[in-house]
Specification:
The chain is an alpha+beta fold. It is about 25% helix and about 25% strand. The N terminus is likely disordered.
């Protein structure tokens, strides 16, 4: 009997070990982005997610991989080649007590070319997650605040796409923005290593860098650049390494800038802005593209327009 019990115990242990090993051989559970929480409590996730993702990507600073919220207290939209993103003082957070509501007017370059000192990532090298959209675009972002109820320019930020094959020894670069009248802005751009994000299902990405410039427009205004933006000029952006070797050449289209700024200003007084985006947009669920071509909605409802930016021009 003792021998039979010992054999049974050995057999049960062996089965347990085998099951454990087999479980370990199965496919590894995929990690889910924190942004899943954005639509966790929404009945029609398929309809809600594209609206909320586009809302997030309208901002230069919203992380589409994070739990970026339901959009309450925010509004966004597209005007020509420009996006705008507005936050009430409650959502703006930092500095809201002194500076009030916040608006971003964002211009994105999507057709960058490289040079002898580096180049942007190719499609096959971009991160295979929601961050890929930001990794491939050049961002020129202006932050406005409303300390007295009227939006005023406060900060300028320029962020390069991820640049690979950067020439040895390059840590910083010179950034130039040119318009019809010549150089409108020039500054030293600080370089930093881009985050390592797997591509194509797991391959290691190439080493790459991001270059960025920040400017306090209250203390150091840029009247020529602001005039060019307001006038809808097409701008050239160059990122140069030592001895003028190009890292990046980009074109920035500014049509729609004034309209975007006006829409952001209107959002401040829109009663709809306190509601979550999905709740705001529920009334338009059955409307088609033809409706949106002629629709005249308030600033906080522009986010409900399902058309691509190219379809709105």
């Amino acid at each position: 009997m003792a021998m039979m019990f010992a054999m049974f115990r050995f057999s049960a242990t062996a089965v347990l070990v085998a099951v454990t090993l087999l479980a370990g051989c199965g496919p590894e559970a995929k990690k889910r982005a924190a942004s899943d929480a954005v639509v966790a409590d929404v009945a029609d996730k398929g309809a809600a997610w594209p609206l909320l993702l586009r809302h997030c990507l309208s901002s230069a600073h919203c992380d589409p991989m994070s739990n970026f919220g339901d959009g309450s207290g925010e509004a966004s939209g597209v005007a020509g080649s420009v996006t705008w993103f507005f936050q009430t003082p409650e959502k703006a957070g930092e500095g809201a007590q002194d500076y009030g509501a916040k608006a971003e007017i964002n211009l994105f370059g999507m057709r960058a070319n490289g040079g002898p000192a580096g180049r942007p990532l190719t499609i096959d090298e971009l991160p295979d997650n929601l961050g890929g959209a930001k990794a491939k675009r050049t961002t020129l972002s202006l932050e406005y605040r409303a300390p007295s109820g009227v939006l005023e320019p406060y900060f300028l930020q320029i962020i390069s796409p991820h640049i690979t094959q950067v020439a040895e020894g390059v840590e910083d670069a010179r950034l130039e923005i040119m318009g019809a009248g010549g150089v409108l802005f020039a500054a030293e751009a600080s370089g930093m290593e881009a985050p390592k994000t797997p591509v194509n299902g797991g391959y290691d990405p190439p080493d790459s860098m991001i270059f960025h410039v920040s400017r306090n427009l209250r203390d150091e205004p840029l009247p020529q650049l602001m005039a060019a933006l307001a006038g809808g000029e097409t701008l050239s952006l160059n990122l140069l390494a030592a001895e003028g070797r190009p890292l990046l050449r980009e074109v920035i289209y500014t049509d729609g800038f004034q309209s975007a700024l006006g829409r952001a200003g209107e959002a401040a007084g829109d009663q709809e802005i306190t509601r979550p985006v999905v709740e705001r947009c529920a009334r338009f669920a059955d409307e088609d593209v033809a409706f949106w071509k002629i629709a005249d909605v308030t600033a906080a409802l522009v986010v409900c327009d399902p058309r691509l930016p190219e379809q709105r021009r």
